[in-house]
């Protein structure tokens, strides 16, 4: 009999931010297939017989192709195992959880999803930044900074006109370009903006600046991936926490 795969969100990093349901899945798993952003402390919750499969970056720094990860999930479930596919944050927020669910459905393998706290909301919250606030932002927009096949998928003119909070994931290597695009398309240079690195981890770090100064400030502070970029008035509220 074939097994089953649970796509489980591990939350932004602090192990306490994983859901109870996710933890139950982890404890019952026969195999766990995990990503780079998953806190390794969580793996200690697995049973002694559980097989741990790391599909984070390989030694040559290239990601394991998605097809290969799908094949691993199908193979493990095919052995009759309870498989947990453990991902940072929420599995369906830029986590390719949708692609994996599709592949499993095609292979006729049962799949269930356990949502997680996404870094885009929970990571900011741990830095004292509310993603919405009645006085400042009535919407928020979560955007990938990643280029697909070298192409920028975004309409920056449109994004610059939104009054809501912009949260950009996977954007650190393009931070200067992103801030420039938004300013060139009309977002005010003095808009509060922040970078939160390693959100919810003990080594969390943050830089608060403006759209114009954020790239330089975060470069000087030595911030890099994994970081959240947040642009909008709500970023200034993190100051309350710093006082
Ligand atoms: N599914 C994840 C996002 C995966 S994309 C989620 O819901 O959070 C990976 C990107 O998420 C990273 O490049 C970074 O921008 C962001 N990220 C994830 N965890 C983070 C953390 N603890 N601190 C800062 N950024 C984080």
UniProtKB/TrEMBL annotation:
Record-stated family: Belongs to the precorrin methyltransferase family.
Pfam families from the entry? TP_methylase
What is the organism field in this record?
Sodalis ligni
What is the name listed in the Swiss-Prot or TrEMBL entry for this protein?
uroporphyrinogen-III C-methyltransferase
Cross-referenced PANTHER family: S-ADENOSYL-L-METHIONINE-DEPENDENT UROPORPHYRINOGEN III METHYLTRANSFERASE, CHLOROPLASTIC, SIROHEME SYNTHASE-RELATED
Q: Which UniProt keywords apply?
A: Cobalamin biosynthesis, Lyase, Methyltransferase, Multifunctional enzyme, Oxidoreductase, Phosphoprotein, Porphyrin biosynthesis, S-adenosyl-L-methionine, Transferase
Metabolic or biological pathway, per its Swiss-Prot or TrEMBL entry: Cofactor biosynthesis; adenosylcobalamin biosynthesis; precorrin-2 from uroporphyrinogen III: step 1/1; Porphyrin-containing compound metabolism; siroheme biosynthesis; precorrin-2 from uroporphyrinogen III: step 1/1
Superkingdom: Bacteria
In this chain the Tetrapyrrole methylase domain maps to: 4-214
| InterPro entries linked | 4pyrrol_Mease, 4pyrrol_Methylase_sf, 4pyrrole_Mease_sub1, 4pyrrole_Mease_sub2, CobA/CysG_C, Siro_Cobalamin_biosynth, Uropor_MeTrfase_CS
Q: Name one GO molecular function term.
A: uroporphyrin-III C-methyltransferase activity
Catalytic activity, EC: 2.1.1.107
Q: GO biological process: any one? A: cobalamin biosynthetic process
């Amino acid at each position: 009999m074939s097994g089953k795969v649970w796509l489980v969100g591990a939350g932004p990093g602090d192990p306490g931010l994983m859901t109870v349901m996710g933890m139950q899945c982890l404890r019952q798993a026969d195999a766990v297939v995990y990503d780079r952003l998953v806190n390794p402390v969580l793996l200690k919750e697995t049973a002694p017989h559980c097989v741990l499969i790391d599909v984070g970056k390989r030694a040559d720094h290239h990601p394991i192709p998605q097809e290969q990860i799908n094949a691993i999930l199908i193979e493990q479930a095919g052995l009759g195992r309870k498989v947990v596919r453990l991902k940072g944050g929420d599995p369906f927020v830029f986590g390719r959880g949708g692609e994996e669910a599709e592949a499993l459905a095609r292979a006729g393998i049962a799949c269930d999803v356990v949502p997680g706290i996404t870094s885009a909301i929970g990571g900011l919250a741990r830095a004292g930044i509310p993603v919405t606030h009645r006085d400042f932002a009535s919407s928020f927009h979560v955007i990938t900074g990643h280029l697909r096949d070298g192409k920028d998928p975004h309409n920056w003119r449109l994004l610059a006109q939104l009054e809501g909070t912009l949260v950009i994931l996977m954007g650190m290597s393009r931070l200067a370009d992103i801030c420039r695009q938004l300013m060139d398309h009309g977002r005010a240079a003095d808009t509060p903006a922040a970078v939160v690195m390693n959100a919810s981890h003990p080594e969390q770090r943050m830089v608060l600046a403006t759209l114009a100064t954020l790239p330089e400030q975060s470069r000087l502070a030595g911030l890099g991936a994994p970081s959240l970029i947040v642009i909008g008035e709500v970023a200034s509220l993190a100051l309350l926490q710093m006082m």
